[in-house]
Write a structure and sequence with these properties.
Length: about 260
């Protein structure tokens, strides 16, 4: 059992490394559902705010304001949201059951297979716009490692927000009776990047728009729809044996904190 869990963790870690790289050179070693030319999100997303514009200055003001969240429960939550592979586990309270790769292999397989589609949707506009991350423009503590890799990875659009919103949209479809809670938590997962100071607010919003484009395109692929149906049956079985996740009240309280 530990070996299987470790294998899934390694697979999802590889997924996250590619998404975090956010560069045109980032590639996953397996194919997604979409043909490479099927969706170009450069044509979908607006350009990022121009430096000095009211929108860009609003981003800078939000970065400065959210530094006050350090050492609060919302900051702690943002730290748990740092690894993109945590999205499924961190949706457990919203779903109402403990969801993990070992218990839901069909769902995990679906998410792993759509990862290259998300990766392309992120890497192409990131490479084009090469927007700097907020902490490189203004002083302030962040809750991620100030690595050279992070600094080289452009800000727009947010890969974390794209991934978490794409997963949230899929999960809301699988468990529609919990869709409000699922989408609220998926949104918070992306907004944790603002709390951490590693993405501008407009880049996180663009990530959600990016994800919506990807998931819309995926629904045109018969194989994706078939895998969604299989995952829905799997999740339905898991929900008949719910395991109450821990600290859901604390998570709800952290999510209720105004960000700015």
């Amino acid at each position: 059992m530990k070996t299987v869990r470790r294998a899934w963790a390694l697979l999802l870690t590889g997924l996250c490394v590619s998404l975090l790289a956010g560069a045109a050179s980032a590639r996953l070693p397996w194919k997604g559902y979409l043909a490479a030319e099927a969706l170009d999100t450069i044509a979908v997303l607006p350009p990022p705010p121009v430096a000095g514009s009211p929108e860009a200055e609003a981003d800078r003001a939000i970065f400065r304001a959210t530094r006050a969240l350090k050492d609060t429960p919302r900051w702690t939550m943002a730290v748990t949201d740092l690894p993109e592979r945590n999205i499924l586990e961190n949706l457990s309270c919203a779903i109402g059951a403990d969801i993990n790769p070992l218990a839901t292999p069909k769902l995990t397989g679906l998410l792993v297979k759509m990862a290259p589609d998300v990766s392309r949707a992120v890497s192409r506009p990131k490479a084009l716009y090469s927007r700097q991350r907020p902490y490189l423009l203004d002083e302030g503590e962040i809750c991620a490692d100030r690595s050279a890799r992070l600094a080289r990875s452009p800000d727009y659009p947010s890969g974390h927000a794209t991934w978490s919103w794409a997963v949230g949209l899929v999960m809301a479809e699988l468990v529609p009776e919990r869709s409000s809670a699922i989408l609220a938590r998926a949104r918070a997962f992306g907004e944790s990047r603002i709390v951490c100071g590693v993405h501008n607010a407009s880049s996180v919003a663009a990530g959600r728009q990016n994800a919506a484009a990807v998931v819309a395109a995926l629904h045109g692929v018969p194989e994706f729809r078939s895998d969604v149906a299989a995952a829905r049956r799997e999740i339905a079985r898991a929900l008949t044996r719910p395991k109450a996740p821990a600290d859901c009240d604390a998570e709800a309280a952290a999510m209720a904190t105004p960000l700015w």
